[in-house]
Specification:
Layout (H helix, E strand, L loop, with lengths): L9 H16 L9 E8 L15 H7 L3 E7 L5 H10 L3 H4 L8 H4 L6 H7 L3 E6 L47 E2 L2 E2 L12 H15 L5 E10 L7 H4 L27 H4 L10 H32 L5 E7 L4 E2 L5 E2 L5 H4 E2 L1 E4 L8 E8 L3 H8 L14 H4 L10 E7 L13 E7 L3 E8 L5 E8 L17 H14 L19
Parallel strand pairs: 1-6, 1-7, 2-12, 3-6
Antiparallel strand pairs: 2-10, 2-11, 4-5, 7-11, 8-9, 13-14, 14-15, 15-16
Helix pairs in contact: 1-2, 2-10, 7-10
């Protein structure tokens, strides 16, 4: 894990747990057909309190106290559109042929069945508040056919999330860099609803109040802690910047150059990048933590609204992030790598019909598992072709079978769709097993392996040494390699955008 700010007091967790338990017990008896409250964060790595992270997240922690925390959950690609499209269709990025932000999955798979659409077709009222499907980069806006009513604040840009307030006080941020049309960091003393996520929480609470009868699937997509780092001032005030220890920014020893990227989301185009000063680095990290606490407060507002409806006792709550994030580790900023910090995400599932809340599992799971899990939890038939595994046995208290693994991938260039060709030069395929992370980088046109990585998580959890040639890890490497090849056979030329019928010319 990364940096810590304040120690937590055990009695606070105990009070939260006891309070939540009393509220749930006071609710209605569970119905035969449960509803689903699906909450997604954007760019949230595993810094939440219930995972031992440095962020102050009492509301996410109280959700963990009544559910199951998956301590080792992994996205299928550390980029918004591919990750969300994979999760919401139950299909891996290669099956969709989608590894970039500019192509909507319906341009490639127009008949794909999505998680909310499947629930809608089986009698659920499905609603979308905030960012669930990817937004402004794509020609298609969201996925209206998945919902019973129009979406809310689902199609926008992060860079346009400026404070909506009359004469907002000046920002005290020192970073002068830009993010879209606004500043990269901003610290203003404004209300929560001045920014997107406060308005998302308010609308989610309103929609919950309208869903008075019948099963519902409400998806609430928060925009934080994604950049820009502009949470209201009271969330910055929760942290002391001078108590943040320095980040280990060294690249892993012996790692191939292709494993890295240019951090353009935060640092800008390579030809215009300037090194970050120590003060700027500290403020960016501070702002990211403030964004997590701002997000957490909005999660709390939605959970409280669910309680007020009296339907918490028959509503399954899922909390998840689309992928992780780097804050200078490995010399990287933002996402688009196959390293652990980008692939590893928080995942919580709280089913009120099942006791023994507050459990944690070390089983390795994937975000593609969420679709079959919720279908099973709600007693619905599963659509054909889902590529994940149902997690309900774990939620019900059964251990996950041995031999588990998670698969993540990312192309190079990281944002290949910004060029004229719109096809990767290489694809990195990565597997996370109980002990190691093994990654192969393959030439996209020929399938030839051009670089490999191996990180031993029993001795090197921070992934600071590529141990691909360590003879002591040879058995673990061979097993990971065998399983990776079983999932991603090395072929001449991967599935292309052209083969999926997408016009690639600018």
């Amino acid at each position: 894990m990364s940096f810590y700010v304040f120690p937590r007091k055990s009695f606070q967790i105990a009070v939260i747990t006891a309070w939540w338990g009393l509220v749930v017990c006071a609710g209605r008896a569970p119905a035969e057909t449960p509803s689903v409250l699906f909450i997604m964060a954007d760019d949230l790595r595993c810094d939440v309190g219930c995972m031992g992270g440095p962020a102050l997240t009492p509301h996410i922690d109280r959700l963990a106290a009544r559910g199951v925390l998956f301590e080792r959950a992994y996205c299928q690609q550390a980029l918004c559109n591919p990750s969300r499209s994979s999760l919401l269709t139950g299909l891996r990025p290669d099956t969709l042929g989608l590894w970039c932000n500019s192509v909507h999955f319906r341009e490639l798979k127009p008949d794909a069945v999505t998680l909310p659409r499947w629930f809608k077709e089986h009698g659920y009222a499905t609603r979308c508040v905030g960012k669930i499907f990817h937004n402004w980069h794509t020609a298609v806006h969201g996925d209206r056919q998945s919902w019973s009513a129009d979406e809310f604040l689902h199609y926008a840009t992060h860079g346009d999330d400026a404070p909506q307030a009359a004469d907002p006080p000046p920002s005290t941020a020192i970073v002068q860099r830009r993010y879209g049309k606004g500043p990269l960091t901003e610290c203003r003393d404004v209300a929560d609803e001045a920014y997107y996520d406060g308005r998302v929480a308010a609308e989610a609470a309103r929609v919950l109040g309208d869903l008075k009868s019948g099963p519902f699937f409400l998806a609430v997509g928060f925009w934080k802690p994604h950049a820009p780092f502009n949470a209201p001032k009271k969330y910055w005030d929760l942290y002391e910047r001078d108590r943040l220890p320095p980040v280990e920014a060294t690249r892993p020893a012996h790692a191939p150059a292709i494993a890295f990227h240019e951090s353009t989301e935060i640092l800008g185009p390579p030809d215009r990048q300037a090194p970050l000063s120590p003060e700027e680095i500290a403020e960016l990290r501070h702002g990211y933590l403030a964004g997590i606490s701002y997000l957490d407060a909005q999660v709390g507002r939605v959970l409280d609204a669910l309680e007020r409806t009296g339907r918490a006792s028959d509503t399954i709550v899922v909390f998840v992030s689309d992928h992780g994030f780097h804050l200078g580790e490995h010399g990287l900023w933002a996402k688009t790598s196959n390293f652990e910090l980008d692939a590893h995400v928080p995942l919580l599932i709280a089913d009120p019909r099942i006791g023994h809340g507050g459990r944690k599992t070390r089983g390795i799971v994937e975000l593609v598992d969420i679709f079959p899990t919720l279908v099973d939890a709600c007693g619905l038939p599963a659509p054909p072709g889902l590529e994940g595994t149902c997690l309900m046995p774990i939620v019900r208290g059964q251990p996950k079978a041995a031999g588990e693994a998670a698969f993540t991938q990312h192309p190079r260039p990281a944002y290949f769709d910004r060029g004229a060709v719109k096809q990767p030069e290489a694809m990195g395929y990565s597997i996370r097993t109980d002990r190691v992370r093994y990654t192969e980088w393959r030439d996209y046109a020929t399938g030839t392996v051009i670089a490999r990585e191996l990180y031993d998580h029993t001795a090197d959890a921070a992934e600071l040494r590529n141990a691909i040639d360590d003879p002591r890890l040879a058995p673990s490497r061979r097993e990971a390699e065998r399983r990776l090849h079983g999932q991603f056979p090395s072929t001449v030329g991967g599935p292309s955008l052209q083969s999926q019928g997408f016009k690639t010319e600018d």
